[in-house]
Known about the structure:
Layout: H1 2-15, E1 23-27, H2 32-47, E2 53-60, H3 69-77, E3 82-86, H4 89-96, H5 103-120, E4 125-127, H6 132-146, E5 155-158, E6 163-166, H7 174-183, H8 200-211, H9 218-227
Parallel strand pairs: 1-2, 1-4, 2-3, 4-6
Antiparallel strand pairs: 5-6
Helix pairs in contact: 1-2, 2-7, 6-8, 6-9
Amino acid sequence: MKRVLGCIRRADERYNMIREGDKICVGVSGGKDSLLLLYGMKLYQRFCRTPFELCGVMLDLGISGEDFTPVAEFAKAIDVPFEIVKTDIGDVVFNVRKESHPCALCAKLRRGALNDAARERGCNLVALGHNRDDVIETFFLSLFYESRLNTFGPVTYLGRKDVTVIRPMIFLPEKQALSIAKRLELPIRKPNCFVAGNTKRDEMKRLIQHFTTIVPNPEERIMNAIADTHKYGMWDRLRFPPRDLLDPGLPLPVTEDEDV
Length: 260
């Protein structure tokens, strides 16, 4: 857990995630990341210089065959207040809307329900268990399917909900999260969704895995490119001279670090 706590502390200190008096609602799906985050935040609460309150919320999507007992017992064992909130998200997505590609709508409805649940419990922060791989996969999803350079932020304020979303595990590689979760014998729930394993995000996982056959440590390199914003060299950062000062018959000047 030292590695998990180190990543949480790094994210907190770098992005000023937690302030004194904050009440944090951890969104628990039952997957390895959210359970690890719940446990990690409980441990972090003990030595963090900034005092904060903590609770956990799990959404019942209304899909048959879901057993939340092991997760509830785990939360009780680590002394974190925990509640299961019933929703009709599963029915809306699969029966009412009959979505053939349900992930986007399901995620949107889950985010809304979780943020509402957090506010109802007096929380001003919602903590999500996204890891480093999630950051990178979202970047490539936006690049290939939305034609933009974008990924979710470490800290995002939602004005309409008056809640701030934080992602304390963004520096933790997924393979380490899985290894630690198994070692701790966390009560990981298998995805209860018929599209699990066949999503666009799973395609990005396979793509990034392919990168490892070409470039050493591609995940670390991509993450550094995302996090180290002072290194950005996109067109909005370029300084073009005024066009009226240039001879229209001459090419634009070449910057010092550009290949000639």
